[in-house]
Amino acid sequence: MKLVVVSAGLSVPSSTRLLADRLAAAVDRLAPVDVQVVELRYLAVEIAHHLTNGFPGRALAAAQDAVAGADGLAVVTPVFSASYSGLFKSFFDVLDKDALAGKPVLIGATGGTARHSLVLDHALRPLFAYLRAVVVPTGVYAASEDWGAQGLADRVERAAGELATLMTGRPAAGPAEPEEADDALTVVPFEQRLAELGA
C-alpha cells in the first residue's frame, strides 16, 4: 500500500513536516505502507505557473500522479490567517477534480496557539469533503505547547489507526450484533395495522 504525505510547511526545520512524519510513522506501524512525502515548499513556483498557464512542471506532475495513485493521504498545513495556507490550497486546486474521490485522507494542522484548532473542522474537513475524499474522524492539530505532551501522541495514534483501517479495508470495530430481534419490535405492515384499528 502507498501512503502519500502532503506537507505545506515552509520553514526548515518545520513543525508541520514533523507532525506529518509522526502521522506517517504511526500509520506504518499499524499497516506497513510505502511512504512518499510531497513537500509543497519545493513546488511553489510550479504550482503558480500551473495556475496561470494550465500546465504542470515535471516535479508538480510527479506529485499529482503520486497523490492520484495513493491508497491514502496524510495532509498537514500550517495555519495562516485562521485557515490553511495559500500554498496548501493551491496544490489541491491544481489536482484533477476526481483525484481524491473515495480516497481516505487524514487531516492535520500546526499553529502557534490552540485557539486555531477549529481549522480542522471549519476549513480542512469541508475542503476534502468537497473533493469527495473520505476524511477520517480524528483530525490532528498541534499547537506549540502540544509538542511532547501526551495528548498529541494519543491523537496521532488514534487518527493513524482510523486511516490504516480505511486503507486496508478492514471493518472498524463496532457494537456487537443483536442475537435476535425482540418480539416487541416485530414490524407490522401498515395495511394490517389499519385493519386492526378498524380504519
Automatic annotation (TrEMBL):
<dbReference type="GO" id="GO:0016491">
    <property type="term" value="F:oxidoreductase activity"/>
</dbReference>
<dbReference type="InterPro" id="IPR029039">
    <property type="entry name" value="Flavoprotein-like_sf"/>
</dbReference>
<dbReference type="InterPro" id="IPR005025">
    <property type="entry name" value="FMN_Rdtase-like_dom"/>
</dbReference>
<dbReference type="Pfam" id="PF03358">
    <property type="entry name" value="FMN_red"/>
</dbReference>
<dbReference type="InterPro" id="IPR023932">
    <property type="entry name" value="CE1759_FMN_reduct"/>
</dbReference>
<protein>
    <submittedName>
        <fullName>Oxidoreductase</fullName>
    </submittedName>
</protein>
<keyword id="KW-0285">Flavoprotein</keyword>
<keyword id="KW-0560">Oxidoreductase</keyword>
<dbReference type="InterPro" id="IPR051814">
    <property type="entry name" value="NAD(P)H-dep_FMN_reductase"/>
</dbReference>
<feature type="domain" description="NADPH-dependent FMN reductase-like">
    <location>
        <begin position="1"/>
        <end position="147"/>
    </location>
</feature>
<keyword id="KW-0288">FMN</keyword>
